[in-house]
Structures are given as structure tokens and as C-alpha cells.
From TrEMBL:
This is Pyruvate dehydrogenase E1 component subunit beta. Keywords: Carbohydrate metabolism, Glucose metabolism, Oxidoreductase, Pyruvate, Thiamine pyrophosphate. InterPro entries: PDHB_mito-type, THDP-binding, Transketolase-like_Pyr-bd. The keyword Oxidoreductase applies. Residues 17-180 form the Transketolase-like pyrimidine-binding domain. The keyword Coiled coil does not apply. Pfam families: Transket_pyr. Heterotetramer of two PDHA1 and two PDHB subunits. The heterotetramer interacts with DLAT, and is part of the multimeric pyruvate dehydrogenase complex that contains multiple copies of pyruvate dehydrogenase (E1), dihydrolipoamide acetyltransferase (DLAT, E2) and lipoamide dehydrogenase (DLD, E3). These subunits are bound to an inner core composed of about 48 DLAT and 12 PDHX molecules. Interacts with DLAT. Its EC number is 1.2.4.1. PANTHER family: DEHYDROGENASE RELATED (PTHR11624), PYRUVATE DEHYDROGENASE E1 COMPONENT SUBUNIT BETA, MITOCHONDRIAL (PTHR11624:SF96). The pyruvate dehydrogenase complex catalyzes the overall conversion of pyruvate to acetyl-CoA and CO2. The pyruvate dehydrogenase complex catalyzes the overall conversion of pyruvate to acetyl-CoA and CO(2), and thereby links the glycolytic pathway to the tricarboxylic cycle.
Length: 180
């Protein structure tokens, strides 16, 4: 009908991308770009991530760049902070940000404060990533939003993307940043 009226049909100006796929693309591009970047967290490797954010990355980059961890946020966040201080660029994924509270000492007292406490001589190029806030079916233990709380902690940069484009660009920028 539109063609009969003289209207032209054209392809969409942009391809629709889900936030999940945008985050996956950002991780893939940064893992490809910089060999110091690696991803660690629960179920990020063989299972492709609890929410499939890391889908395909373990098969592409292997066990040394995409690392499944035990259910011990305190432990793997500490490993990630130490790796960042040693010059690597970890992306530390929490299955939900509620579980970051298990690693609060590493996030706040080790990662966030180190640059200031060292007078700028020690960078901590780490990203703490994961879903945050309410969602259907995740109940009381998974529904808190800690963005504002973490935003009040000196030394942390907190981002809450609105769109797939925001998610991809902000994750790439965070991975390239020299501080948490």
C-alpha cells in the first residue's frame, strides 16, 4: 500500500541491539583490543554467564581470559583488585550487585581508595559489573539498587546505562579507565 502511494520503503537507520548483546559486544571488543583485559565471575565461562552477557567469550578467549570462579565474591573480587594493581584490567562480574556486599571491603577499601591513598601512584583499572535493582522474580535478596550508595563512595565511578548504546559505550570506557 505504501508503494502505491509513492512512499519509499527503506531499511531501518540502525539495527536494534539488546542491552545483553551490547554488553557482550563491548566485552568482546575490549578482550580483542587489549590482552590485559580479562573477565572473571560466577558462571561467566562455560555457562556463558547467568544472563548470557558473556555468551561465546570463553570459547573465543579461553580459560585465562574468561574465568569461572567459586561462589566467593570476597575471594574473586580480591583477586581482581590485586590483578588490577599489578597492571591487568579485570572485569569482575557479580551475578547480581546484591552480592557485591560480600566483597565490600575489596570494592571500597582496596579498589576505590587506592589511587588517593597512594597519592596517585597506584592505579586500579578494574570494572565491577553486574545487574542492579529490581527485576521480576528475583525476590528480596536480589532486588536492591546500590547505584546511589556506591555513587557516594569516593574513588568509584558509577554508571547506570539507559539504552543498549549507553551500555556498550560506558562499559568500553570503564574498561579503559585507570580507576574503578
Amino acid at each position: 500500500l505504501q508503494q502505491r502511494r509513492g512512499l519509499r520503503l527503506s531499511a531501518p537507520a540502525a539495527i536494534q541491539v539488546t542491552v545483553r548483546d551490547a554488553l557482550n559486544q563491548a566485552l568482546d571488543e575490549e578482550l580483542e583490543r587489549d590482552e590485559r583485559v580479562f573477565l572473571l565471575g560466577e558462571e561467566v565461562a562455560q555457562y556463558d554467564g547467568a544472563y548470557k552477557i558473556s555468551r561465546g567469550l570463553w570459547k573465543k578467549y579461553g580459560d585465562k581470559r574468561v574465568i569461572d570462579t567459586p561462589i566467593s565474591e570476597m575471594g574473586f573480587a580480591g583477586i581482581a583488585v590485586g590483578a588490577a594493581m599489578a597492571g591487568l584490567r579485570p572485569v569482575c562480574e557479580f551475578m547480581t550487585f546484591n552480592f557485591s556486599m560480600q566483597a565490600i571491603d575489596q570494592v571500597i577499601n582496596s579498589a576505590a581508595k587506592t589511587c588517593y591513598m597512594s597519592a596517585g601512584s597506584i592505579a586500579v583499572p578494574i570494572v565491577f559489573r553486574g545487574p542492579n535493582g529490581a527485576s521480576a522474580g528475583v525476590a528480596a535478596q536480589h532486588s536492591q539498587c546500590f547505584a546511589a550508595w556506591y555513587g557516594h563512595c569516593p574513588g568509584l565511578k558509577v554508571v547506570s546505562p539507559w539504552s543498549a548504546e549507553d551500555a556498550k559505550g560506558l562499559l568500553k570506557a570503564a574498561i579503559r579507565d585507570d580507576n574503578p
